[in-house]
Design goal:
188 residues, alpha+beta, three-stranded antiparallel β-sheet, 39% helix
C-alpha cells in the first residue's frame, strides 16, 4: 500500500470518519482488495512447489493448476487469482473446461465449475469463447484458453497412415499382426 493509504487507514476504521472521508475509505477498501493477488505473487513468484527452474532459461516454467501456458508469470498464475481457467483433456474425446467462481473463493470445494465439451473442434472452441465472453470472465486469458483447447483437440485426432513404398505396406501389416517373417536358413 502507498504511504497515503497507510496514513489514513486509521481514519477509516471508525464510522464517523467514513462520513468525513467517504472517498478515501472507499479507496482504501479497493486498494486492499486489489493488492492481495499482487502481494501473493510477490511472495510466491520465486519459490513454490510447481516451479520448474533450469539453467539458461530466463522464464521458468510452472505446472500449477489453472496456468494455461505453463509459464511462471503473474497473468497466467492459477495460485494467486480468484478467477482462473483450466483446460484439460476429457476421458475419451473432448476437453474439460473448468473455471473458478470468485464468490466461492473461501470454499474451495464449491468454487470450480466443470464443463465437458465433446462436440466437434470448431463448436468446442466457439463454446469456450462464448463462455468467457458472456460471463466477462478473464478476457485476457481467452486466446491462451483457445490455444490450449486447440492443441488438446489436435492431439486427439486419429493419425492418418502414410502411403509409402510398395514394400513398406506388407512390412507394416506384418508388424501390426505381430508376426515376423522367418529368416532363410543357410545352405551347408
Amino acid at each position: 500500500m502507498s504511504t497515503i493509504v497507510r496514513l489514513f487507514a486509521s481514519f477509516s476504521e471508525n464510522q464517523s470518519d467514513q462520513r468525513v472521508f467517504p472517498i478515501l475509505s472507499a479507496d482504501i477498501r479497493e486498494a486492499t482488495n486489489m493488492d492481495s493477488s499482487h502481494l501473493n505473487w510477490l511472495i510466491i513468484r520465486d519459490h513454490h512447489a510447481y516451479l520448474m527452474k533450469q539453467k539458461n532459461i530466463k522464464k521458468p516454467f510452472s505446472t500449477e493448476p489453472g496456468n494455461l501456458t505453463n509459464l511462471s508469470s503473474y497473468r497466467y498464475s492459477g495460485l494467486v487469482h480468484k478467477k482462473t481457467i483450466t483446460i484439460t483433456p476429457a476421458e475419451k474425446k473432448g476437453v474439460n473446461f473448468v473455471y473458478k467462481r470468485a464468490k466461492k473463493a473461501n470454499k474451495p470445494a464449491k468454487a470450480p465449475v466443470k464443463v465437458t465439451l465433446k462436440q466437434g473442434p470448431r463448436r468446442t472452441l466457439k463454446k469456450i469463447k462464448n463462455i468467457i465472453k458472456a460471463n466477462k470472465y478473464r478476457t485476457d486469458l481467452r486466446q491462451a484458453a483457445l490455444r490450449r483447447a486447440s492443441a488438446i483437440l489436435r492431439s486427439q485426432r486419429p493419425t492418418k497412415t502414410k502411403k509409402g513404398k510398395a514394400g513398406a505396406a506388407p512390412a507394416a501389416a506384418a508388424a501390426a499382426t505381430g508376426t515376423t517373417a522367418a529368416a532363410p536358413k543357410k545352405a551347408e
